[in-house]
Amino acid sequence: xxxxxxxxxxxxxxxxxGACMVACAVENNIPPLPAATDRKGVTWIRVYRIGNGQRxxxxxxxxxxxxxxxxxxxxxxxxxxxxxxxxxxxGQMPQRCLGCRYCMAACPYHARYFNWWDPVWPRxxxxxxxxxxxxxxxxxxxxxxxxxxxxxxxxESGGQFVPACVEACPAQAIEFVDLHQxxxxxxxxxxxxxxxxxxxxxxHSKRDWVREIANAPGPGxxxxxxxxxxxx
Amino acid sequence: xxxxxxxxxxKRCSPRQFGMWLAPWVALFVFGLYxxxxxxxxxxxxxxxxxxxxxxxxxxxxxxxxxLGAGAFFTAFLLYVLKVEELRAVINSAVVIGFxxxxxxxxxxxxxxxxxxxxxxxxxxxxxxxxxxEVTFCxxxxxxxxxxxxxxxxxxxxxxxxxxGFLVFEHELHKLVYVxxxxxxxxxxxHQGSLGxxxxxxxxxxxxxxEGLALWPSTFFLFILSAAAVGPSFILLTTWLxxxxxxxxxxxxxxxxVLARISGLLLAVYVAAKALDTLxxxxxxxxxxxxxxxxxxxxxxxxxxILFAEIVLFGLVPAVMLLVPRVRARTGWLVAAxxxxxxxxxxxxxxxxxxxxAVPTLSFDPFLSYYPSWQEVGTFLxxxxxxxxxxxxxxxxxxxxPEEREVRQISFFTTETRRHGENPKNFSVSPCxxxx
Lengths: 232, 436
Hints:
In chain A, 16% of the residues lie in helices and 17% in strands.
């Protein structure tokens, strides 16, 4: 039977330490890019900080691995994006990517990243590169693929695998599951569920205000969200 | 040498004056080539686009000039298919404008993609479900059609006609003109629509997403309609500009009147369709996706004024102006209305490109702004300069306005007869003066 890989993320457990982001970058050979800004950098997971004015919480957002009708898949003009029917993972083929960035415009989760620079590692650091993940060239799009290198290794050895972020999280806030075997908890929610993208990443929080903000409908629909940028 | 290349019976400025007119545009073009070269050599990090603002000035420019360049296909359709004979006076100019707009757009697209050398991948691994595939196929094919349509105009140059082979080739090409007009119309309808569909299918961007008919979202049809409406206005505007800059009358007033009527009528239909589409989007499409439409307009500078400007100020108002004969009869109002119509469609393309990306989708994501870098502006200006250069050279050496000689003779006789106290209406222009 085909798998349907997904994630459960417990927002209440996430401390915003960023270990998942670092582990992801190391595992997937994401270059340091010293000239990159927050808006031009490559990070397959972005940890958002949300707050209600008194308390804060952290929401890790990566590719949500939407269902068969993923918004990024049908827009790619050269079939560089697909949903693997065997795993449910939304894959990206950098070797075929033209760099038109239409998939990035289509993604409601802003979880796709463009290589604005050539990947360069400081001298000596290239020896730390992971041989299971091919570095991507300048001018192509990339995104979370649930650590495809680990998946291939697991297939070869016949074992199980978990993505690097799951392994690195000290609070065990991220859980990697086969949704066929582990249905999501009853009170979990998915981001922008009304859009009908059928994402395979589920979030959970016992705090009402967190659920209200993270699951609020519409742009800036959450009270206080993006307040510093919102005028009028 | 220069004199021999200019068509018989028309007057052009001295080569020195012409050189002085071209010089700043050449400088701008060279600067733009340098900017584009930087982006190609060093990568798109030279731009101010980022992971959120993945499209910027260039895609906006592409959408805008492709809409304005629609005059080429629509004029050809009206002339060769619907037999609106008055438009023969501007068809050559329309073809050159179309060629300039489409070649400029394709050139900018090649700079805009991260891996330009992989552009052929779209033809080799086409995703038939992608609107961008449709756009790529149709734009490339239509650019080829425009190049073939442009070629006979070039070959009709006074000196080139001396080469018998060229004359025969031009004659043979001219026979294809009806086929080319039909093919061009088909391709244009599709890619103008696909450019609208490009945004309309973005389910993940409820600001742009629209319901539609079968495979196509409503923006598919709105883009076709708006491009067809604004194309004749842009032809009118450029012809008027060419008259003002060259100091000559190039077409009879009747041609302006026909262009204005067609543009006004289509613009009125477009405004009605756009208003209906906006109402459906505000009341049904967007709320169903969980996004109350009012939220989109809570971020400055994108207030509701932009919607009013797009539909009423630069849509309904110019449509009425172009349709009312008394307003249309005054050149100043006519040109102002055509310019407003063009601006309205350009504003629509701006909204679809920039506002779509500025508005966040995640509830905890902030609103972002974007300003193009000088390299982006330079490349943008190169396209404008390229257009002016190609059009200026074509205007000087090719017969962009076949009626020019006749109009010149008419105005000459009118002046002369008025001087001698006779009625100019009694004159008819002989076929030899018309260049037949």
